[in-house]
Amino acid sequence: MQTAFRQEPHRARCRGVMGVLALGILLGACSSESGPVGLDATQAGGARMAQRPPDLPGDRPERPQFPVGVGCGWQAASDINVTNIAFPDDSAKYWVAVVPHIPGTRLRIDGRFGHMRYFSFNVYDPLIRPVDAIADEALVPDEAGQANPFVDERAPLGGSYTAYVDFGQKPETPAINTLYSGAIPTGDNAVPNPAGTVIMYRSYVPEAGFDFQGGVGLPVLTLETADGSQEILPYADCTEPLIPTGGGVVPDPGLNDLLLTIDLPDALLGLVTIPTATMPPSTQVFYGLPTTLLQILGNALGVPLGEEASGLPLTGGGGFLSNLHNDYTTIGFARRFGSAYVVRARAPSWRGAAGVPWGGEQLRYWSICQNEFLTQRFVDCARDEEVALDESGFFTVMVTDPADRPTWANADNGITWLPWGPFPDGLIIYRHMLPDPGFDQAIQNVPQGTEPAGIMGDYLPIGAYCHDEQLSQAPQSAAALFDDCLDATSGQGAQSGMVFGMQRAGSTPVR
Question: Could you give the CA distance from residue 357 to residue 352 in angstroms, rounded to a whole number?
Fold first, then answer.
């Protein structure tokens, strides 16, 4: 336990807020783009990449490139400086294409294995729920006998793969490297999806010296006959699509960096009430849009609404263009309950973490983001390697306005600080990606209708409000700060006549 916290001046983080443009509202989805690229190798989790042999030459179709992204198969891309919707994560970038379901055709994807922590393809139904996905580790390379570099760390990067989107329903035994977009889930069954699909290509955490394309360019798309004998629409190649930046020519408006520095005036606190927050804070697993809407309605009415309270077919299935390889918890906060809050949990290991053998990590990736519900913006995020851990392996994230940030709220003292942003509410989204089968406490292992604390234990993030009494002087440790804020929040809840269970730092729930 630390006996004294180190002090540093108030400092706002100035990483840009990510942008996402939607075709209609089709862009966004629990993943986005971070500001700087070419990260330090240890920051990017890529130190072990230096041990790889030289990159393989990758095959890709020869296609023309046109100015400002015209003709690009990817019609839109995320951009941190233009738009920011659907609860994105700032350590990723993604590209979107809308593809019609033309009978007798399929979509071919020609790509290469790039220098990045993770990449994938997801396809979506008309309700912007993911219906199928394929991750980097599941792709079979084109070259016979060549190992997949996301499965074997000794395999070289740069080699090519070919994937397909089949517009039919997914069979019991799927074809290799193939996604299926022809069904709309309806609970235990599915109905045909004859119209078309949205396909999203995601890239997370580029290796040092690379941008989000990982040094291999974008995958090239081709609409072809279902047997592959004829190309029907060979899309152009591109470095960036037309939307939203005109192939990269639209200048940075600077709005997102400005928002990071703005405090919400106290006079506005009582004017807006958004029913995403409970008192005390409650950690929820995200299963799908219907469940989320019921939770918000229950908050507004002051009555908890379970799935049985509605005749709607609550089928889960995600939403907001979510990623099938991620699962999420959320905690809602509101300034009417306090102007500072903390979130704490035991940190899982991640790929590239010091002392963790490659492939032996609990998760491929995890992150925590401060968001705003109505605009669906993220204000700022911190991913696994950016999050400070204390001597017990726990993280403590504090969210305040920049002017209210204590000088001791810094990584040296085991605290990761995020700005609240100019909003009356806050929404913490915590992501787990591709858990190891042996990591029983992953979010992915919490069945719908199950209390998450019983599965996740100390890995479940718990939130609490902090007030002047807790923030006026440096605590002995991040754990002590959390316990003090938790006690204060417990008192608030008791005064409100609310019954709840909360969890002290590094302990089992206190009922």
Answer: 8
Residues of the chain above pLDDT 90, percent: 49
Note whether 165 and 199 are within 8 A (CB): yes
**Predicted confidence band at 374 (pLDDT cuts at 50, 70, 90)?**
confident
Q: How many CB atoms lie within 10 A of CB 473?
A: 9
pLDDT score for 508: 34
> String of b and e for 178-193 (b: at least 16 CB within 10 Å)?
ebbbbbbbeeeeeeeb
Q: Which residues, other chains included, contact 60 with Cβ-Cβ below 8 Å and sequence gap of 6+? A: 110, 111, 112, 160, 217, 220, 237
DSSP string, 277-336: --SS--EEE--BHHHHHHHHHHHHHTS---GGG--S-----B-TT--TTEEEEEEEEETT
Q: Is the bond preceding 244 in cis, omega lying within 30 degrees of 0?
A: yes
What is the arithmetic mean of pLDDT over 178-190?
A: 80
Q: Is 15 exposed, middle or buried (0-12, 13-18, 19+ CB in 10 A)?
A: buried
Beta bridge partners, 141, equal 161
| Mean pLDDT within 381-392 | 96
How far apart are alpha carbons 419 and 144 in whole angstroms? 50
* pTM, full prediction: 0.83
- List Cα–Cα distances, 215 to 112, 116, 119, 394, in angstroms: 9, 9, 13, 35
- Tokens for 500, please give them: 């709840």
- Residue identified by tokens 């106290």 is 266
Take residue 325 and report the two structure tokens written for it: 């390889």
pLDDT at 491: 72
Q: Give the residue from 421, 420, 406 showing the smallest Cα distance to 467.
A: 406
Name residues whose C-beta falls within 8 Å of residue 26's C-beta, 6 or more positions apart in sequence.
76, 96, 98, 128, 198, 321
Please say if the pLDDT value at position 318 is more than 90: no
CA distance readout (Å), 122 to 76, 134, 212, 430, 443: 15, 7, 17, 20, 20
104-131: per-residue pLDDT in tens? 999 999 999 999 999 999 999 887 788 9
Least confident of 274-283, 387-396, 472-481: 274-283
Q: What is the mean pLDDT of residues 355-379?
A: 89
Per-residue pLDDT at 84: 54
State the chain's maximal CA–CA distance in angstroms.
71
Confidence of residue 376 (pLDDT cuts 50, 70, 90): confident
- List beta partners, residue 198: 98, 124
φ/ψ (deg, to 5) at 304: -65, 130
User: Based on the number of CB atoms within 10 Å of its own CB, is 250 exposed (0-12), middle (13-18) or buried (19 or more)?
Assistant: middle
Q: Say how far residue 339 (Cα) sits from the centre of its chain.
A: 25
Structure tokens at 463: 């939130």
